Amino acid sequence: MKVLKFGGTSVASAASIKQTVSILGAARSSSDKICVVVSALSGVTDHLIAAGIAAAEGRGTDYLALLKTIEEIHLLEAGALFPLSNQSVILSRIKQLLNELDLIVEGVYTLGELSARSQDRIMAFGEILSSTIISHYMASSQMPHEWADSRLLIKTNFNYGNGIVDAVITNLNISKKFNASAQLLWVLPGFVASAPDNSTTTLGRGGSDYTAALIAAACNAEELQIWTDVSGMMTADPRLCVNAKVVPHITYQEAMELSHFGAKVIYPPTIQPVMNLDIPIRIKNTFAPDDLGTLIERTSRNDENIVCGLSSMSKMSILLLEGSGMIGIPGFSKRLFDTLSKEKINVILITQSSSEHSICVAIDEKNSIAANAAVNEEFSNEILLGKLIPLQIENDLSIIALVGDEMKSHPGISGKMFSALGRNGINIRAIAQGSSEKNISAVIRSKDVKKAINVLHEVFFESTKIQVNLFIIGVGNVGSKLLNQLDKQSAFLHAQLRTQVRVVGLANSKTMLLNEDGIDLASWQEKLGAGNKMEIEKFIEFITEKNLRNSIFVDNTASSEVPLHYSSLLKKSVSVVACNKVAASSDITTYNNLKKLASEYNTSFLFETNVGAGLPVIGTLNDLLNSGDEITKIQAVLSGTLTFVFNNYDGTKPFYEVVKQAQDEGYTEPDPRIDLSGIDVMRKILILARESGLQINIDEIANNGFLPESCMNGDVNNFYEELKKHEEHFKKIYKEASEKNCRLKFVAQLESGKASVGLQHIDNSHDLYHLYGKDNVVLFYTKRYSEQPLVIKGAGAGAEVTASGIFADIMRAAKGSHK
Asked: Model-level pTM?
């Protein structure tokens, strides 16, 4: 015998009822006997409860309207199921039941009181009506069966208004009735049963599932099937995690743990009756009956993952009772739990410090006010004497749970869990792990739940695949090249590195585009052009509010305002990748603070392109230091712009034209004076000095510039006019170097704790001599590289190579967020 239970969505409409009956037709061929348990039509129970309450409160119009809605729902479905010529019998039966309901609700209205007994009687009509309609439809479809009243089969030892099923159920010869009968198919209403006085009661939350489980246990069924609108128990709530997948096999204990913590596919009481008899439970999808679903048994066949699933409970509160007066004094815990028990407040999670200084429990948020009053009253004397602090309550919390039978035999699971949460800035308020080690639960802020579920799902179910969310400000030459590279490389990253990089935010100086689901990079220009007005505060607010996992903020601007927000982002565990040099070359206090925040919040602050565009200069420097080497001297040509200018200027072509060419080809900053004045090079050697361990500011760097002072006045147009006026000055500089068979290089140097930049004559024996085009070169002299320096050389300017450097930093940050 098999017992099949169909939930509210499975009988929500005429189409779904037809699908359900079709499934029953197929099931008859695979089992000798079938018992079918059905829920009320979707939403009907809520309407019934609301009608009873409205009647008790004297809201006559409201309860009559609700009863009318209930009538319309059932008559509509009956009308869609049966041809007009066959409707009279079922419509008459529906009307008869509804008239009975009307009389009961009218009695509640007259008395102005809704007793628990009346409430249960009213709620029972949902399942009675739905099972009656389905039974009549099966009869009209020539499917032999018998309708059986669950109230005559199941009797409880409790009365009415039970919130959950927590009492022993007494069956009335269920097995004898079904096994002795020649009938092969029965239809029963779920949820309903008889109280000790033989009146109607209900089985509480998940009552229809429980009805099916009791029938299965009483008849020692071959299998209990729960038919719903999903294809089984999922690794996570699919509403929170789009990558959630069906768990093919799971144990009774694992199912109980997941269902207790919010997985609504099955309720804990349903499992108990069949678990004792080793009757398997199968979760199936009414609307995809060919899907295998989830099989729940004594032992799991799931060998893929140590963790079987993630679950969560929302609207939780933490109660914290603490004080030195608790230490060494027995009975405090008992008094706390007794007080909560008297208020009928269920404790969901418990943790106590080993010092006995505090006890922390999690409860349903709706009970927090009552708990506060009761606990403070119980411990009023201790609070008055200063032995205890008044009860502390924290709301807006949720519990996330990691579940798996095999976790107990695999060390490091909790460390993996908490590390993943920590890397994404998810603070844990309390932790609990049962002695069975099948469940690790953590209390977190409710706004972090979606992020936490997705982070943990990646770690435990998609360990080779991560999602990275980018927020990019600055889409000019460098930014547009970066977006192009991201678009072209997307398939490779996904296939080879199992990484999905999504651009979620884009902005320029005028507009911004924000889309939590990702921006299509094939059409970003048009969409950004039609975006909202750019407001940096709102852009940052979006990042923090959406709280997406593995978030990376990319600053491609030269703005001094944008870096002001780096610290707030790092504090939210959002990695920062900066092409912008302002932050890393700002006051040493700011630089140190940003580095400290990145370390403290376990995130990344990366700015490789600040020094050598796409060249691995900072990364190499860090590798040298991390491996124990010591820097003795750095010599470098760090301006692709100045390299280009002095490689192309020989006095035959005006200096200003060479500079203009460099700007037109994208080698300079928007204001070329930043490059030619040496300020940009000063920033770069400053950054290298700081990364080497020196605590210096930019005003401590000597700048032996070559530009006449007048060139620094006015705007960029004035700058070019001044260059024209001083052509002889530049020719003289070139001639002096040429006469010595030297080349002009703007060199940055760090030695003995001192940094300087300036134009130098470089002869052909020097490593800096052979530098062409827009190339940069860095020479690291160290204890290990004392005679011949470690040389890094290559293109040090240009949008394409700079974008590739930013891309590399993004991937470093992504890797760091998923260690």
From this structure: 0.69
